[in-house]
């Protein structure tokens, strides 16, 4: 049955400098009492994800190839909006997917590259060597992911990349101390895990 | 106890990464959702939003053409589309304060930091369904009420003028369904 007009309009309370608008909750339709104790949507979703996980290694290798292709394009053409965007999105995606795909050790190196690209005000000043070191580290960590000591190796690599990157970012952002403070502040939101 | 009937919800997933879209689709189907629409960039996402009228939008932040933040701002434009109140859950690998605040100020309803887990996604969806927040409209903002809690120790300025400066509390739907 269609809602009557008076139920579909939001209620509005008006104040001196703002309004509080309460729209009708159309999603209420999706709430229901739990009657079947065996119904476990969370378990179903986790099982489905576990089944999909057999593809994750191939996906991570594909992401690494994408990162490498972006690096090569940048070397050929130089820093443009397009080459920058490709490299940025490639390392951003690896950072976001690393843990889910079973490659937690690589997220630090990917994040360090992302920080370098995100927080350097003039992208043409980023040394190619620093980009190469990051990309090579990401590929090496992914390649060697099965090693029992990979976490320690990756941590050492990432720490060094981060030190060099932080030093570079401090230098490049020395004229904007507020921005510097914000990029070195601790993260706010907890992880989704 | 209460549950979500995911088969009564229509989702729109906007992410330029095909792998991430597949993961989200897998999780949502696992929850029981039947309608999951996808878009691979902000522009296609806006078109899909207008066409499919989803109940909930899941969007990545970093995307080509225009990003998740710009998409949220466009959806939240009062009068620009049929449902500026749609819950928008932003997925992002970045949790720096500056970014979270930017997302909040763009009108995002919930923020979900990667790595994504079934549990965290489920909880965000449950929150937007069972605990909807009212919307606030000012000269510079239109979106979900950015105040979740009352802080009795807050001593700073009160930026909202004209009374009723408390958090607007609504009875969560979980309580209404159980009672």
How would you describe this protein?
The complex is a heterodimer of chains A (193) and B (179). Chain A has a domain of 127 residues: HPT domain (Four Helix Bundle (Hemerythrin (Met), subunit A)), CATH 1.20.120.160. Chain A contains 8 helices and 3 strands, in the order αβββααααααα. In chain A, helix 4 runs antiparallel to helix 5 and helix 5 packs antiparallel against helix 6. The two termini of chain A are 40 Å apart. The N terminus of chain A is likely disordered. Chain B is α/β, with parallel strands linked by helices. Chain B has a single domain, classed as Rossmann fold. In chain B, helix 2 runs parallel beside helix 3. Chain B has a 5-stranded parallel sheet with strand order 3-2-4-5-6, with helices on both faces. Chain B has a two-stranded antiparallel ribbon with strand order 7-8. Classes of the chains: A mainly alpha (193), B alpha/beta (179). At the A-B interface, strand 2, strand 3, helix 2, helix 3 and helix 4 of A face strand 1, helix 1, helix 4, strand 6 and helix 5 of B. Strand 3 of chain A pairs antiparallel with strand 1 of chain B.
């Amino acid at each position: 049955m269609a809602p009557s007009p008076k139920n579909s309009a939001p209620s509005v309370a008006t104040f001196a400098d703002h309004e509080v608008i309460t729209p009708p909750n159309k999603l209420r339709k999706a709430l229901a009492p739990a009657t079947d104790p065996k119904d476990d949507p969370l378990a179903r979703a986790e099982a489905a994800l576990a089944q999909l996980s057999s593809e994750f290694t191939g996906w991570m290798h594909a992401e690494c190839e994408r990162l490498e292709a972006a690096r090569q394009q940048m070397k050929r053409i130089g820093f443009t909006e397009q080459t920058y965007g490709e490299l940025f999105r490639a390392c951003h995606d690896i950072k976001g997917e690393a843990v889910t795909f079973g490659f937690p050790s690589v997220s630090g190196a990917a994040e360090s590259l992302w920080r370098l690209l995100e927080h350097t005000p003039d992208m043409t000043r980023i040394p190619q060597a620093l980009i190469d070191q990051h990309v090579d580290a990401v590929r090496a960590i992914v390649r060697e992911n099965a090693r029992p000591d990979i976490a320690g190796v990756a941590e050492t690599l990432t720490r060094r990349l981060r030190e060099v990157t932080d030093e570079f970012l401090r230098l490049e952002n020395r004229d904007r101390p507020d921005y510097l403070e914000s990029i070195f502040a601790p993260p706010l939101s907890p992880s989704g895990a | 106890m209460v549950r979500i009937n995911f088969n009564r919800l229509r989702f729109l997933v906007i992410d330029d990464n095909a792998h991430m879209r597949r993961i989200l689709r897998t999780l949502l189907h696992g929850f029981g959702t039947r309608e999951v629409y996808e878009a691979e960039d902000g522009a296609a996402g806006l078109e899909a939003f207008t066409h499919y009228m989803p109940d909930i939008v899941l969007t990545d932040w970093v995307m080509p053409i225009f990003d998740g933040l710009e998409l949220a701002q466009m959806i939240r434009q009062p009068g620009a589309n049929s449902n500026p109140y749609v819950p928008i859950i932003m997925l992002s690998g970045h949790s720096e304060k500056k970014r979270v605040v930017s997302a909040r100020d763009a009108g995002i309803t919930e923020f979900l930091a990667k790595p994504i887990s079934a549990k965290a996604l489920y909880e965000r969806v449950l929150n937007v369904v069972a605990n909807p927040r009212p919307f606030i409209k000012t000269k510079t903002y239109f979106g979900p009420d950015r105040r979740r809690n009352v802080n009795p120790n807050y001593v700073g300025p009160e930026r909202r003028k004209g009374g009723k400066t408390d958090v607007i509390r609504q009875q969560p739907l979980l309580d209404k369904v159980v009672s």
